[in-house]
Each structure stands twice: as C-alpha cells, then as structure tokens.
C-alpha cells in the first residue's frame, strides 16, 4: 500500500514534466509563427509565409491544448493521491483487530513452546527418579509436577488452537481487503494512463489535420497563383492604356451631344446617323403605376417571399450581420411592389429567385389552428364607438437613439456586460450594444478572468392559411463573447495565457454550426452529439482584442463574434406564435380576422413575447376602419397596425386570441395581402443551446439569451 502511494506521486510528477515540455514547445512554436509574420512581405513568395504562420499557430494551439488537458489530468491524480491516503488511514483503523490477533498468536506460540519444554523436562525427571529407586514420597512429588505441567501444556494447546483460528480468519479478511485496495489502485492508475494516452492521441490527430491542411494549402499554392497574386497587388489595371501619342498629335475629336429618347415600342432602336464615338444620353419614360388588377403581381411577390423564407442560410463571415430587414421597411417594399403591375411598365421587371440552398424538411405533425377565444366580441353592423377614427401611422419608438438601459452585471463585473439593445429599426435581431464607460474593476493575472456570453436568435416564419403543413420556419442564431478591456493587458503581458475553452450543450438541436475559423478550434473526433467542445486560438484572440482596443481605446469591453448556427426546425411546432389569417372581400367592405396562439413548446424555457406588433396592408381605398382590439390606421400607406401587450401562457386564454377589423371601401374589392408580425423575447432562446466554461482561469459573469422575429409573415 505504501508503494502504491509512491507510484501515484511519481506518475503525477511524470505527467507534470510532460506538460512542461509541451508548454515550452508551444511557446517556441508561437515565437516561430511570429518569425514567419516578420518575414518579407514583398515578392511572389510573400503569401507562402501566411500559410506557414497560420499552420504554426495552429500547431502551437494544439500543443497548448494538450497542456491544458494534462493539467486537468494532474489535478485528477492529485485528488486520487489524497483519496488514497484517506483510504489507507481508514483501512489501518479497520485492520487493528488483525494486528491484535497477530500479536496474540505470537505470544501464545511462545507460551506453548515453553509449556511443552517444561512438560518434557518434568516427565523425563520422573522417569529418572523411578529408575534410580527414589522414595515413594519423592516419586509422588515428581508425579504432581508432571501432572501440573501436563495441564499447563494442554491449556496452551487449546489457546493456540483458538488463537490460530482467529488469526487465520482475521488475516484472510485483511488480505482480501488489501488485495481489493491494490486492485482498485491499479485500475485507477490504468484509467489515468488511458486518459493520458487519449489526450496525446487527440493532439496527434489534430496535429495530423493541421499538417494535412498545410500540405493541401501548399499544393494549391501554384506558381501561377503566386504570380497572379503579385500582379493583382502591384498592377494598375486590367485594360491596356490607349495611344496617348496619337491623341496628343491630332488633338481631341470634336463631339456633338444630342438627346436620345427610347421609344416605348422599340427598346433597342438607335439613330443610324449617330456618331459611334459620341456618348449616349438615355431618357427613360415609365408610365404611372395603375391601382387595379394586381392579382398576378401579388402572387409572384408571395412566391418570392416563400422562397426567401425557405432559403435563409448562415453567412460564412465571422462578423455579426443583421438577420433581416426591418419589418416596416420590408413590408413597405413588399406592399408597393405587390400593388404595382408589371404589364404597365414598358421596360419589363423580372423577379430573380434566390439561389437554391439546403432547406429544412417540413414536419409531418399536425397542429390545429389557433382556437377561437371563448368570449370573442362581435363587430356590430354600424360603427364602433371610439375606434372609427382615422389616425396617422406612427411606428414604435424603438430606435438606436434611445435604447433601453443596459442590463448590469451582478456585483462589480460591469466591465464585461452586454448591453440590451432591442432596436428593431435596422434589424429584427437585437444586437450586442456598445461600451457603457470606464469600469471600476481591476483585473489581476492570478484571478479568474470574467467574460460574458450572449445568444441571439432570429426566427423567420411563413404561414399559409390554416394548413400547418404549409408553414415554413427557419431559425438562426449567433454566439458572442464579451471581454473586459483590462484582460488585454493580462493577455499581452503573459507569455502563454490560459486557453479559453468551453462546451456547447444541446447541439443535437442544431442543424449547422459555423464557427469563426480565425479564432475558434473544435474537436472533430468528439462522439457526443449533444455537446461540442471548443477552444480559442489565444494568439489570434489577443491580436484581435489589441486591434479593437487601438480602434476604440475608451471602450470598457469588447465583443467578439464566436460562431453562428442554424436550429433544426419542425415546421409550425418550432414557431413561438402561430398565425391564421382570414379575408372576406366585397366591392364595398373587407372583413379581416387574424387568429394567433402562443406556442410554449417551441422554446426550451417558455418566455413572454414582448412588443408584439401586427402590420396589415389593405387596398381598395379604405374610408373607415372598425377594429377590435383598437388598431391604428395609416391612410397614406394604407396599413393598419395592432400593438399588443406581452403574450405568454399566463395571458388570457393561455396566449390565444384574435384581431378583427372591418374596412369600408371606396374602390373595392381589396386584394388579400401578406401581413407581417414582429416581437422579441428576453431571457430564453428557441434552441436551448447553452455554454459552460471548461478548465480554470476564467469565469462566466453573464449569460444573456434572447430571440426576435426576422421575416414573420402570414397569408390567407
């Protein structure tokens, strides 16, 4: 058992020495990468140094990741050594009775041996006296001594038998316990060695991948491509300059300028007498847009909308981009296009569909349309008091000029906070805010460094009638890390800062993950489909943060886009707010009803939908509107707007309800149009994706989650 403790400590020392060697090697590789970056950037060979630099940095990161894993393994060995010492102490107390049995049999054996010798001596003395003819009295005395020696010897024989039995029983139990401890010790040592081998093997696999990537990059770096890159970087253009000598000798040719109008019946016609060298001035006339007969163009626009929802994919760029246009500006564009007629435009407009991209299969499960409220008020035939007023449209005051107050961090960790900017004027996806001023936090290199994370998701949906199988849903998300400004000084002053590693959970719900390849590495050999391990390229992260601080030195924290992802969608089951719209159009009136139902099953943790707005364009010359609940009518844009309170499962009818309106027309009938909805939610995501830090050196001070609408539309 004592040798077991010694071997455990020696194994810990061995792994620690290996980690030190790997760390020294990683630092050397990092210095080598810097050497490659300092090489000449002139000439045709310059791009090759970038390949060397990136490959060397990746190799350094691989070895540094092995250092991190070995350090974690050393902690496990140290923990086992402590447990081993406690178990040995406990075992020593448990086998105390065995020690007593050993001591007892030793003392009984000695006493038995003495009594045996005494019995033999007394017997031999009695025989000698009998042969020598001793008196009867002396013989009787000798006989008593023999009898007493016999009884003593007999008693010690019995004691020895009992002591032997107890000794064998105790020793058997103790030996089995010792063997069990040793077997467990060997198994634990084998587990530690297996973890050690696995860490080294994973590193070798990663190094092999880096080497394979390096070889491919070198194979793709041909002589022609290097020459081409040099030509593109140093060239002044692709067109050969004209004959300047001729123009200087003969002078500029006089030109006549004349207006060229395009007849409506001959788009490609031109004047035969026009000089080819003269610049052409085009005058295009377009007839005014007609207001009627827009059904064909409306259908084409709706098909375009459906295609746009189905073809939303992740952008490969690492920077955070807007998930969609503003609902108001987007619908304004749609409505104006849908009201126009291609037949009335002399230069013909063609709709170019988006490129084919992989889409999510529609779910086969059936969900009934939203239920009608139990106590839905009916619209009377006449005007409703207080809701027939035609008021100008005023969009919600959600602009970048007055964002809501930023969400502070707990305690004094405001340096790494992510502000809560929920503006939807430029994008329907809330963006990570900017700095909130100097931070009182002073970071020390020995402290766990605080970082913050934000998950922002955008849900895009298209509903067609009451058929759930026609619902298209696409959900995308972004993950952003925020670092306090004080961390840059620690990164730059530390030769090898601790590698920031994290685990992404619930990844089985994601259809695609697109990490920032410049900053993030992942373990491709991981077998668990519900989690995925990542670690950052610390030299690249340090360089990025240093550059950000140079561009904005007054900021108290800096945000870094880590990865994008697309969530697996199951049709209408994945939409947080289900919609069904009904139109009844006559020449004089239009009746509209929008049923909605809150769907908590679409969220990992059900959260309220806030700032819910429904925008519906109505054509046909609306002269009066009656609505329940009260809506706002914009006569200039011919749109009605509902602003609703928060919707959740705690709302009336568990988040189900209806919007109803009756429109009186002067130039009917109306053409059913596409309605748009916007909302957002704080504190939850639709995917349930989460992050936890792995290893030491960092702590998570804030985990912010939110989602908002992208293109969220419904048709009858």
TrEMBL record:
Residues 448-716 form the MHD domain. Residues 233-279, 341-441 are annotated as: Disordered. One of its GO terms (cellular component) is plasma membrane. Residues 408-431 have a biased composition (Low complexity). Pfam families: GMIP-like_FCH, muHD. Residues 1-226 form the F-BAR domain. One of its GO terms (biological process) is clathrin coat assembly. It is a peripheral membrane protein. Residues 63-94, 146-184 form a coiled coil. InterPro entries: AH/BAR_dom_sf (IPR027267), AP2_Mu_C_sf (IPR036168), F_BAR_dom (IPR031160), FCH_dom (IPR001060), GMIP/FCHO2-like_FCH (IPR054713), MHD (IPR028565), Muniscin_C (IPR018808). It is found in: Membrane, Clathrin-coated pit. Residues 432-441 have a biased composition (Polar residues). Keywords: Coated pit, Coiled coil, Endocytosis, Membrane, Phosphoprotein. It comes from the Eukaryota. PROSITE patterns: F_BAR (PS51741), MHD (PS51072). Belongs to the FCHO family. PANTHER family: F-BAR DOMAIN ONLY PROTEIN 2, PROLINE-SERINE-THREONINE PHOSPHATASE INTERACTING PROTEIN 1. This is FCH and mu domain containing endocytic adaptor 2. It comes from Cyprinus carpio (Common carp).
């Amino acid at each position: 058992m004592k040798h077991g403790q010694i071997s455990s400590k020696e194994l810990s020392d061995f792994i620690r020495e290996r980690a030190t060697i790997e760390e020294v090697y990683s630092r050397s590789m990092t210095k080598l990468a810097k050497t490659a970056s300092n090489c000449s950037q002139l000439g045709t060979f310059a791009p090759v140094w970038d390949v060397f630099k990136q490959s060397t940095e990746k190799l350094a990161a691989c070895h540094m990741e092995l250092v991190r894993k070995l350090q974690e393994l050393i902690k496990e060995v140290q923990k086992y050594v402590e447990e081993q010492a406690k178990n040995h102490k406990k075992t020593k107390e448990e086998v105390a009775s065995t020690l007593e049995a050993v001591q007892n049999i030793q003392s009984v054996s000695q006493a038995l041996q003495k009594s045996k010798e005494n019995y033999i001596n007394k017997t031999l003395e009695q025989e000698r006296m009998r042969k020598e003819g001793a008196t009867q009295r002396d013989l009787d005395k000798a006989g008593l001594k023999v009898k007493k020696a016999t009884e003593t010897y007999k008693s010690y024989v019995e004691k020895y038998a009992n002591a032997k039995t107890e000794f064998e029983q105790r020793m058997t139990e103790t030996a089995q316990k010792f063997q069990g401890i040793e077997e467990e010790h060997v198994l634990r040592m084998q587990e530690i060695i297996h973890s050690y081998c696995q860490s080294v093997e994973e590193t070798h696999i990663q190094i092999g991948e880096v080497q394979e990537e390096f070889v491919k990059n070198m194979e793709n770096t041909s002589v022609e491509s290097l020459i081409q890159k040099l030509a593109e970087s140093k060239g002044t253009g692709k067109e050969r300059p004209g004959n300047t000598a001729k123009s200087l000798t003969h002078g500029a040719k006089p030109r006549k300028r004349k207006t060229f109008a395009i007849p409506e019946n001959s788009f490609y016609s031109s004047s035969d007498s026009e000089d080819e060298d003269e610049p052409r001035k085009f005058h295009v006339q377009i007839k005014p847009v007609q207001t009627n007969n827009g059904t064909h163009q409306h259908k084409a626009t709706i098909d375009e909308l459906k295609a746009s929802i189905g073809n939303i994919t992740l952008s490969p760029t690492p920077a955070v981009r807007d998930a969609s246009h503003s609902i108001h500006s987007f619908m304004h564009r749609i409505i104006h296009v849908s009201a126009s007629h291609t037949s009335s435009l002399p230069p013909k407009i063609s709709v170019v569909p988006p490129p084919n991209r992989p889409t999510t299969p529609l779910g086969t499960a059936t969900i009934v349309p939203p239920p009608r409220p139990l106590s839905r008020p009916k619209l009377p035939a006449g005007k409703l008091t207080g809701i027939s007023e035609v008021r100008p449209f005023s969009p919600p005051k959600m602009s970048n000029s007055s964002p809501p107050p930023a969400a502070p961090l707990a305690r004094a960790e405001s340096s790494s906070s992510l502000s809560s900017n929920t503006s939807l004027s430029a994008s329907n996806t809330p963006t990570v805010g900017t700095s909130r001023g100097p931070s009182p936090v002073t970071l020390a290199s020995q402290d766990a460094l605080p970082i913050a994370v934000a998950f922002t998701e955008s849900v895009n949906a298209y509903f067609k009638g009451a058929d759930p199988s026609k619902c298209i849903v696409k959900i995308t998300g972004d993950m952003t890390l925020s670092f306090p400004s004080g961390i840059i000084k620690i990164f730059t002053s530390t030769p090898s800062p601790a590698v920031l590693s994290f685990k992404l959970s619930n990844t089985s719900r994601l259809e695609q993950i697109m990490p920032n390849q410049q900053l993030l590495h992942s373990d491709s050999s991981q077998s668990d489909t519900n989690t995925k391990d990542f670690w950052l390229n610390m030299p690249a992260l340090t360089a990025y943060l240093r550059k950000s601080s140079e561009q904005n030195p007054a900021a108290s924290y800096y945000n870094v886009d880590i990865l994008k992802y697309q969530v697996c969608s199951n049709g209408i089951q994945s939409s947080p707010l289900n919609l069904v719209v009904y139109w009844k159009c006559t020449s004089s009136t239009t009746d509209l009803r929008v049923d909605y139902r809150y769907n908590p099953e679409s969220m990992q943790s059900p959260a309220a939908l806030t700032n819910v707005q429904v925008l519906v364009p109505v054509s046909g010359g609306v002269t009066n509107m009656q609505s329940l609940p009260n809506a706002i009518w914009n006569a200039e844009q011919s749109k009605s707007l509902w602003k609703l309170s928060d919707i959740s499962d705690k709302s009336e009818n568990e988040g189900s309800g209806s919007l109803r309106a009756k429109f009186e027309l002067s130039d009917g009938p109306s053409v059913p149009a596409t309605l748009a909805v916007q909302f957002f939610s704080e504190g939850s995501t639709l995917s349930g994706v989460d992050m936890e830090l792995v290893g030491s050196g960092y702590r998570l001070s804030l985990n912010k989650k939110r989602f908002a609408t992208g293109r969220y539309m419904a048709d009858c």
